[in-house]
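Review this chain:
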Amino acid sequence: MSAKKLIHHWKILRGDNVMIIRGKDRGETGTIKRVIRSQNRVIVEGKNPVKKHIKQGQGHEGGIFTL
């Protein structure tokens, strides 16, 4: 999914400290882990973790993993 209006001149880079202004983690600070320019998004380390359900298979265990 791409953003409607892309930001062309980014003033932030990976490793910068930022404060979150939206969502359930509003007001907390963290370090930028990844910048996704095509979606106007940044991934902040340790905030809003994603859980993935993995089915058990041959050679590996199943369960719920946090990415």
Observations:
- The chain has a mean pLDDT of 89.
- DSSP finds no helices and five strands in the chain.
- The chain has one domain: 17-66.
- Residues 37 and 64 are 29 Å apart (CA to CA).
